[in-house]
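Appendix B. Raw example, untouched.
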Amino acid sequence: MGDYTAERTIFLNDGTRMPLLGLGTWKASTEVAQQAIEAAIAAGYRHIDTAYSYRNEVELGRAIHAKIKQGIISRKDMFIVSKLWCTHHATSDVQLCLSQSLRDLQLEYLDLYLIHFPVALKRVGDELFPMKDGKLLTTDIDYVDVWRKMEALQASGQVKSIGVSNFNIVQLERLLSVAKVPPAVNQVELHPYLVQSDLIQFCKDRNIALTAYSPLGPPEDPQSNPLVQSVAKKYKRSPAQVLLRYHVQQGIAVIPRSIKPNHILENTKIFDFSLHEEDFRALQGLDRGWKACTLDALKSHPYYPF
């Protein structure tokens, strides 16, 4: 197990550097998103994760530009990630989705652009989850065809790196067999209640970086687990810091979501200590295969990844 104590970034397979710590903005409502980003940038975060479907990119764009104007950061210091939503998988819609995100974020390019989910939904206006008679309207657009469009976006310079999110091993294997450009990142749910060792090993072997979303776990979160609390006490850290350290020590990026400035700052203090092997293994031993994000309404789709 590599010791990433001093390391704050990893190299992606295309030579780009990605900061291991980012701020997640899923479910960050528009009112608080801007303040959270400003607090995060002030605390030293340079990796910001968002998505077309989060509906908060306008606010994030404002926050980033406020900090650029103040001279605190320049654009090249930042690593901004967004995601292509399921309703925009049709060839003609991929560019539309990216253009909207770039407009809202007031950016000329993204550092990383991900296919948010392998399943395609019908495009009905700007509905995120188009329904008819209580059923989600899916389509059978192949994520392999979407990937070809992602490769074109990268070639155009509008996105520096491309990757996927919520893809399983079988889907990654299929993608790798036809991709001209292999995915640089797979962003998935990871925490000690959902260890996914096989997926981690698969990605490591093929030089695909992992980003852990929900790295602190689901609502009944591991932070209150007695083992996590005792490990935290041992290192004189918070349970959240221990759980984030658990990931970055494996070279896995983390994007904890927080809107409280004190938590945002606390989460940066994970690079000056290391978990001993026995504590790392003990945390791994909490695995319950417990997934918080499942999108059950898509279960019957052939490309459903879980």
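End of appendix B.
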